[in-house]
Specification:
532 residues; mainly alpha; 18 helices; 76% helix; 1% strand; globular
């Protein structure tokens, strides 16, 4: 019975993920009205609920032997409470934020949770607490970034914070897997480079708002060069690549010159050759990438097992609990994409990458529409960070590039990585909220201006009406005198002249107001669920 359910579930999982991604791309490309967006987001939320419900059913059936797994029920209820609690906060306290981006985060977390539970239930249970912590951090970030003063902090502050964090592993060392990129401060172990990415993105976003481009480029090159040198000493090649790509792409965006792209490509090739020749750690990674089969039981074991898992899964996977991901090293962190490909299939993995791509496109499109240069640069920097991290880990797992130690955003296990990703999403949503608030303020100013024009128009019409009443009363009182007919006619002509002049003024005001009213119809109203 369980085997049959697993066989059916892999197609249900695929259908739900395709449906979720299809709805997301429909909203992105078509950009429908607020009402349609709200309806589409509700459909996505329903898909997420069904995905998690199916996962919980399979988990319970797998662990239900002779006794009821009450501990499992408790952890699953905790997981559901955390997800549902954040969704309620999204609909109430953070309703100005964008639900499309949040829905993508929820789906990635759902995929990561079921895969982690299948690989190591204890790791999945710990991940639930990290998710809850990430949600609390997001709330703090969204509340903290309500103030506009945060956008006035000078770039030197972010540079100092970045340098301070990046050297923490030398002061409080905690070596792991041959890399000195972890810090241990009184038992609290974390990876500083995960947070330095954010502060460095702030630094370069502020720096590239200045008009003196030569000075900005020199400062960016000096700070980025120092960061990359430190990361090279720490053997954190994944973070080194991310910093390099971020600096390269942001510089291209700043200068908008093709020579930056070609110069960056040449720099990557030259840097890789020099690192291969003079840095032993890089040499080992490169040799393994070129021929993992030469040392399949040694250095090439990790990438070889990754390729075996991906190919054994085929297009539609072996099904949950039916594969052999236990042979994959670092299967809950760096290599989780291989485990997903084995049990859910290559098609599922491709659609998962399309969700990452959707998030990247959405962030970049939002940055393009942002008028504030600092906030625009920050959105572009975070989009580059997010996509480069995904590309580096997936490319390493499928042997497209040398494998480096980078986690898959919102799916892999890891406290530092997960908190860093949550902070990134929180800042992006804070920028979107500010963008929408600016639009709302502009709309309200336009509305007040048009109301003042209409009030002036009604005042002119009222004045004309009172003058007409006065003239009618004066005319009735003057009819009894035949002797003063000529004088009365002269007065009437003068009054008619004044009335005609006033009528022309009011008509002119009415025409102007009519034009303003027609212009007002073209102003798009403020919509909470507008995708942009």
């Amino acid at each position: 019975m369980f085997q049959m359910m697993v066989l059916v579930s892999k197609y249900v999982y695929l259908f739900l993920l395709v449906l979720f991604a299809g709805i997301g791309y429909f909203v992105y490309w078509r950009k429908p009205s607020a009402g349609v967006c709200k309806e589409m987001y509700s459909y996505q939320a329903g898909v997420i609920v069904l995905f998690n419900l199916l996962s919980c059913i399979l988990i319970v059936l797998k662990e239900w032997n002779e006794t009821i797994p009450w501990a499992t029920f408790q952890m699953l209820l905790l997981y559901a409470g955390v997800m549902f609690g954040m969704y309620l906060l999204l609909l109430t306290l953070h309703r100005h934020t964008n639900r499309l981006l949040w829905n993508c985060v929820y789906m990635l977390l759902s995929v990561g949770f079921i895969m982690l539970w299948r690989l190591d239930p204890d790791t999945a249970k710990t991940q639930i607490y990290w998710i809850a912590g990430g949600y609390m951090v997001v709330n703090v970030v969204l509340l903290f970034f309500r103030g506009r003063w945060i956008w006035k902090i000078p770039g030197i502050f972010f540079m100092v914070v970045s340098v301070g964090f990046i050297i923490l592993p030398f002061i409080f060392p905690s070596e792991a897997n041959g890399s000195l990129n972890w810090a241990n401060i009184k038992g609290f172990v974390f990876q500083p480079s995960e947070f330095v990415k954010l502060t460095f993105a702030f630094f370069i976003a502020v720096l590239y708002t200045k008009t003196n481009k030569l000075t900005s480029l020199l400062q960016a090159a000096a700070v980025a060069g120092f960061m990359m040198l430190v990361l090279l000493v720490q053997n954190d090649l994944g973070a080194l690549l991310i910093f390099g790509i971020l600096t390269w792409m942001m510089t291209y965006d700043y200068l908008d010159r093709a020579i930056v792209l070609w110069g960056g490509c040449i720099g990557i090739v030259v840097g890789a050759l020099l690192a291969y020749k003079f840095v032993g750690h890089v040499t080992v990674r490169f040799d393994i990438w070129m021929d993992p089969w030469a040392d399949i039981n040694g250095g090439g074991y990790q990438i070889a097992q990754s390729l075996f898992a991906i190919t054994s899964g085929g297009w539609f996977g072996t099904g949950l609990y039916q594969g052999s991901p236990g042979y994959i090293p670092a299967r809950t962190t760096d290599m989780i994409f291989s485990a997903i490909s084995e049990e859910f299939g290559a098609v599922f993995a491709i659609v998962l990458l399309l969700i990452y791509l959707l998030m990247f496109l959405f962030v970049m499109e939002t940055g393009r529409r942002e008028k504030n240069t600092f906030r625009r640069n920050l959105l572009v920097a975070f989009g580059i960070l997010f996509m480069s991290q995904t590309f580096i880990i997936v490319g390493g797992v499928i042997k497209l590039i040398p494998l480096t130690g980078v986690t898959m955003p919102f799916i892999s296990y890891g406290g530092s990585s997960l908190l860093s990703n949550f902070i990134t999403i929180g800042i992006i949503e804070a920028v979107i909220r500010l963008y929408r608030m600016d639009r709302e303020e502009a709309r309200q100013r336009e509305q007040r201006r048009e109301e003042e024009e209409w009030e002036a128009y009604y005042a002119a019409v009222e004045a004309q009406r009172r003058e007409a009443e006065w003239y009618a009363q004066w005319q009735s009182e003057d009819e009894w005198s035949q002797e003063s007919g000529q004088t009365s006619a002269g007065r009437r002509g003068a009054a008619d002249g004044r009335n005609a002049a006033n009528g022309q003024k009011v008509g002119s005001r009415q025409t102007t107001s009519g034009k303003k009213k027609s212009a007002k119809k073209n102003i798009k109203p403020f919509e909470f669920d507008d995708p942009f």
